[in-house]
Amino acid sequence: MLGALVEESETVFALTKRLTLRPGWPEDAPALSAAIGHEAVVRNLSRAPWPYALGDAEAFLSLPRAPHQPRFQIMTRDENRLVGGIELISLDTRVHELGYWLTPDIWGRGFATEAGRVVIEMARDALRSERLIGRHMDDNPASGRVLRKLGFIETGRSRLFSLARGSEVECVDLALDLAEPCSAPLPIAA
């Protein structure tokens, strides 16, 4: 099974082979600021400031969580280390935007794709989303490769304001139709 969902008192966790996706907690602030606090990461996000400080992590972790907008910390299962974040931003009742980031020392290991697959399942099955959109900054093709591995197709181009860069940047827009399953149904044991 690609991902297993565990629900504990209204808190959803997702488990994959190598990752635990879980909500962020106030005590995660130091680990979050260390993991995201790289210019190479923050410059590719629209809403994160640069430099990214402990207070920014504390403010982010104190944001209210809505059940229709899941937001997870990406933790390695072997070390229980915070290595990234992934979220679904509700654009309307059936459309969500997928956003994610990873700390640089784990780039290229397939963690973004692994986390993305389970979040896509959540969007389809739990949120009944019909469409996901994603975007990446034109000078961040690695993020585009992740989105394409997840099944997203390019739909156009746009401009997006980046807080860290202090300006608008060119983006590639992509979308994923969730009307069809991403993977074959799992067999049911009798």
Explain what you see.
It is a single chain. With 190 residues, this protein is an alpha+beta fold. Helix content is 23%, strand content 35%. It has 5 helices and 9 strands, in the order βββαααβββαβαββ. It has helices spanning 29-36, 39-42, 54-61, 111-125, 141-149; strands at residues 4-8, 11-15, 19-22, 71-76, 82-92, 95-102, 131-137, 153-162, 167-177. Strands 1-2-3-4-5-6-7-9-8 form a 9-stranded mixed beta sheet, sandwiched between helices. α1 (29-36) packs across α3 (54-61). The longest helix has 15 residues, at 111-125. It is globular and about 40 Å long. The protein starts with a strand and ends in a 13-residue tail after the last strand. The model is unreliable at 1-10 and 182-190 (pLDDT under 50).
Quickly list its features.
single chain, 190 residues, alpha+beta, nine-stranded mixed sheet, 5 helices, 9 strands, disordered N terminus
DSSP helix fraction? 10-25%
Beta-strand fraction estimate: 35-45%
Q: Please outline the major beta sheet.
A: 9 strands, mixed
Uncertain stretches of 5 or more adjacent residues = 1-10, 182-190
* Gap from first CA to last CA: 17 Å
Number of strands: 9
What's the SSE pattern?
Answer: EEEHHHEEEHEHEE
- Give the helix tally: 5
Query: Any idea what the radius of gyration is?
Result: 16 Å
Average pLDDT works out at 90
Assign the structural class, choosing from mainly alpha, mainly beta, alpha/beta, alpha+beta, or little secondary structure: alpha+beta
Major sheet strand order: 1-2-3-4-5-6-7-9-8
Name the shape in a single word: globular
Summarize the model shown.
The protein has 190 residues and is α+β, with helices and mostly antiparallel strands. The protein has helices spanning 29-36, 39-42, 54-61, 111-125, 141-149, and strands at 4-8, 11-15, 19-22, 71-76, 82-92, 95-102, 131-137, 153-162, 167-177.
